[in-house]
UniProtKB/TrEMBL annotation:
Any coiled-coil regions, as ranges: none
SUPFAM superfamilies attached to this UniProt entry: PRC-barrel domain
Source taxonomy: Bacteria, Pseudomonadati, Pseudomonadota, Alphaproteobacteria, Hyphomicrobiales
Residue ranges annotated for the PRC-barrel domain, each copy included: 18-75
Pfam families on file: PRC (PF05239)
Name this polypeptide is given: PRC-barrel
Keywords (A to Z) from UniProt: Plasmid
Length: 120
C-alpha cells in the first residue's frame, strides 16, 4: 500500500507502527500503521490506522487526524474517543494504488470535525 501519493509535503514514518489504539469503549480499534508528518511544520498530521483483517491480511487502513489520539503510557498505546463503529464509517484508503491526500483532506477533516478530545 502506498500512502504517500500526490501530497509531497507529507512524509511517512513507521516509528509508532504497531502501537495499539483503544477507542471510546476501551476496546482496541486498531493499530498504527504509519504516521504522516507535515514536512513544512514538522508536526504529525495524520495516523494511518490498520483495522480488521487476520494476521495483517485484509486489513483496512484509515487515516485519522493526529489530534484525535492521545498517548497512554500505562497502555503503551493510544486512546481516542472514536468508537470502532465510527472508525468503520470513516473515509479509508481504498483500492486505489496511491492514496490522494489532497483530495481527501476536506473529507477527513469534515468527518472528524465533531470528535471532542477530553484532556487528561
Amino acid at each position: 500500500m502506498s500512502i504517500e501519493g500526490s501530497a509531497p509535503h507529507l512524509l511517512t514514518s513507521d516509528k509508532e507502527s504497531g502501537k495499539a489504539v483503544y477507542g471510546a469503549e476501551n476496546k482496541k480499534i486498531g493499530s498504527i500503521e504509519h504516521v504522516m508528518i507535515d514536512e513544512t511544520s514538522g508536526k504529525i498530521a495524520y495516523a494511518v490506522l490498520s483495522f480488521g483483517g487476520f494476521l495483517g491480511i485484509g486489513n483496512d487502513h484509515y487515516p485519522v487526524p493526529w489530534k484525535v489520539l492521545r498517548y497512554d503510557s500505562e497502555l503503551g498505546g493510544y486512546r481516542s474517543d472514536i468508537s470502532g463503529n465510527r472508525l468503520k464509517g470513516a473515509p479509508k484508503h481504498g483500492t486505489e494504488t496511491v492514496f490522494d491526500w489532497n483530495a481527501r483532506y476536506a473529507e477527513l477533516d469534515d468527518y472528524y470535525n465533531d470528535v471532542v478530545i477530553r484532556t487528561g
